[in-house]
Specification:
- The structure is a homodimer of 430-residue chains.
- By secondary structure, the first copy, chain A, is α/β, with parallel strands linked by helices.
- The first copy, chain A, is globular and about 65 Å long.
- Chain A folds into 2 domains: 112 residues, Urease, subunit C, domain 1 (Roll), CATH 2.30.40.10; 288 residues, Metal-dependent hydrolases (TIM Barrel, Alpha-Beta Barrel).
- The longest helix of chain A has 17 residues.
- Chain A is built from 15 helices and 17 strands.
- In chain A, α4 links the parallel β8 and β9.
- In chain A, strands 1, 2, 3, 4, 5, 14, 15, 16 and 17 form a 9-stranded mixed β-sheet that branches. A 4-stranded parallel β-sheet of chain A has the order 6-7-8-9.
Chain lengths: 430, 430
């Protein structure tokens, strides 16, 4: 497969070294980027994608979401977190069946493909159905059957989670990965969290979790354990496992917390929209980044965002930290692109992703720079962060396979998924 | 014309009274909404628009922008305001010709139509060309040939502005309105501002201006006049003219400033994205709203946003004030919809706009609620604010005329406008 006549934003580990290669061609062979040529190659091939007027960037990585929650999008808004969770979200989730979850994940997969996301980290239940949708739609995912002590008195769910990891981790040509994960410190006691950590060490799994999302969580932990949530999890060995270690939210952080995350090589999945919408606060991303912590972007579930668009998060991330710091040079476009690509790849321990370079795995998205809300794209990195929206994503390639071309999703039936999830929402919360 | 089978969010002056009328029909006759019927009417008519799966809302009002600046989109980002203005923006603007401005306005008009904006307030120069584009594209605008003392030593520009008002105000079936306006207090001396105020009183014009955008503007004004920018303009009679009175930005405000704006019936055009991107600060919208000031939403120019999407601003407005106040019930979806519709209509002194009701002028947009990034739209007002983006706008009607249907702009050549503005950008800043 050849993508010709395209401008490439290559992305580098160091944001200052992102490079724009104009009017180049990308040769994809199997799952890999075989070659990048700084010229337009005249070819006669069935599998040529014309990249004229488009910008090629590495597929965006959404490091924290709950895909099956898409049936709860636009339900129960403008509410207090506790009321929202206990009177609306938890009761609705109790009604969800496995088959329903399959369609909800499918819709989320389609939404992410359509907005340029090629890889995401999921934390929920019904993971077999989630894996089925990932297999079919061709997207890449790190799937965690999230567990909590309060809902797992017999340990059956932790067993299910371990079993899922063993069956699915590194399957589907590397498109499906898995980790274990305790939901959060406030839904499990110390013994249960220790069991999750032990299990992770046993089977060689990484760990995901929600961490320091709200002030209440932070204050309660201090009162109960005389430690911050980060210190508490660290004391249980949560950050000493091998492989993927993602802490989502990290809104309320002390300097010592930041040092711990850096020392233990934990990646932070920031969820800016969700934290604003639920009024949880604003994560100290500049401080985390200055300390060398690997910061990435998540959307959280559709119920608290209410999108799964990493491009939305990129724009918001840049704007909000400029505004808060009163420094317009803060959180510039290049840095934000790193958060959503190369840092995301690092968070899931995949050094073959997150950049468009020879030898890398071909997760590539083409963004339309000639859209009337993006053109003129004089500075393509700024156009990507400040002007482009999900609807400007034209073509999506994951693991060398074209999942969307000209806005048409090739690997799933979009109308059917919308129809099914509307019906589920109608039934449960309509 | 009949829009059938549609859900209508009617909007009211009081945000709490917004009403959802499901599966209704809207009869449009000429420029007016003749009738709304709470039933699906079986008809055989050429001019039927099927509203199934769509939400009808009043056309969005963008109360502050500079349309001709679209050639500067994605040029000079992540910069300090003073460097940005004096080393990048002003020199580039000097190169712009009238014919170039025409195409830049045209692109901006297309972008706004495509994102559901039916009316905007413009502050720039080359206003004859701006009016030409507004006439052709069918959108509604309040056009101000913005003037400043430092660039108008002979008074020729103020004369041009007065002349433009006389020729264009309330023309084009009411689609074009006009006001005078001094750009800002820091680009005109007291005498010049007084002349603008006198001229407005002479010809019966309203006034627009930039007000208290940056801390520097505020501090300099205090040092020079021992008054805040708001107090200073008020002392010159700026807020005593009749008709449209719009103060854009209003980031740095005292309680007394807020009282003045309320007492003098001045509408505030908030420009949240632009103020964040240029790190000017965050306007006290909750305080302004609590005091009864008419708060509305603007995008500012494409050079500092970098879009002209009021839907973007709606989502951002709700999220940021929830986050800052740590109150998830703050700035709810219904309130934000008011800012972008009925409050916008009030700001431009048009009580026939901003709501979908019998007898109102037909500025109506239909938003696709079945988009995979919007569905399920269990709470349609939340879907509009938190999920919908410009790309979900399906149909746009302004003054009874269909400007876009099924995402296809009928009143302008989109590709041509993109082509021309890219060429202009290439020439001036490429």
């Amino acid at each position: 497969m050849l993508i010709k006549n395209v401008d490439i934003l290559t992305v580098s580990k160091d944001a200052k070294s992102h490079e724009l290669r104009k009017n180049a061609s990308i040769v994809v062979k199997g799952e890999k980027i075989e070659k990048i040529i700084d010229a337009n190659i005249p070819v006669d091939d069935n599998e040529v994608i014309d990249g004229k007027g488009k910008l090629a960037v590495a597929g965006l990585v959404n490091t924290h979401t709950h895909t099956a929650m898409s049936f709860l999008r636009n339900y129960a808004n403008d509410m207090n977190l506790q009321d929202w969770l206990f009177t609306k979200i938890f009761p609705a989730e109790d009604e969800l069946t496995a088959e329903m979850a399959y369609w909800c994940v499918k819709l989320a997969n389609i939404e992410m493909i359509k907005s340029g996301v090629t890889c995401y980290c999921d934390n929920y239940f019904f993971m077999d159905e989630a894996a089925r949708s990932v297999e079919e739609t061709g997207i890449r995912a790190v799937l965690s059957r999230s567990v909590s002590g309060i809902s797992d008195p017999t340990g059956a769910k932790l067993k299910e989670s371990i079993d899922f990891f063993k069956r699915y981790h590194n399957t589907c040509n590397g498109r499906i990965m898995s980790t274990l994960g305790a939901h959060a410190i406030y839904t499990s006691d110390t013994d249960y969290i220790k069991r999750v950590v032990d299990a992770a060490n046993d089977i060689g799994s990484g760990l995901q979790t929600h961490l320091s999302e709200t002030r209440t969580e932070f204050d309660d932990c201090m009162a109960q354990h005389n430690m911050t949530p980060t210190q508490y999890l660290d004391s249980l060995g949560y950050f000493d496992v091998d492989g993927i270690k993602i802490a989502a939210h990290c809104v309320h952080m002390t300097n010592n917390d930041i040092e711990i995350l850096k020392a233990k090589d934990v990646s932070v999945a920031a969820n800016i929209s969700s934290n604003l919408k639920l009024a949880s606060g604003i994560a100290p991303l500049p401080e985390l980044m200055a300390a060398g912590v690997n910061v990435t972007l998540g959307t959280d579930g559709a119920s608290s965002n209410n999108n799964l668009s990493v491009l939305n998060e990129m724009r918001l991330t840049s704007l909000i930290y400029k505004g808060l710091s009163m420094d317009p040079t803060a959180m510039n476009a290049k840095q934000v692109i790193s958060l959503a690509t190369s840092n995301g790849a690092k968070a899931i321990s995949r050094n073959d992703l997150g950049e468009i370079k020879e030898g890398m795995t071909a997760d590539i998205v083409l963004i339309d720079m000639d859209s009337p809300s993006v053109a003129p794209a004089t500075e393509p990195d700024a156009a990507l962060v400040y002007s482009a929206s999900g609807a400007d994503v034209d073509t999506v390639i994951c693991n060398g396979r074209v999942l969307m071309k000209g806005r048409k999703v090739l690997s799933a039936d979009e109308e059917r998924a919308v129809f099914e999830v509307k019906r589920i929402a109608e039934k449960i919360v309509g």
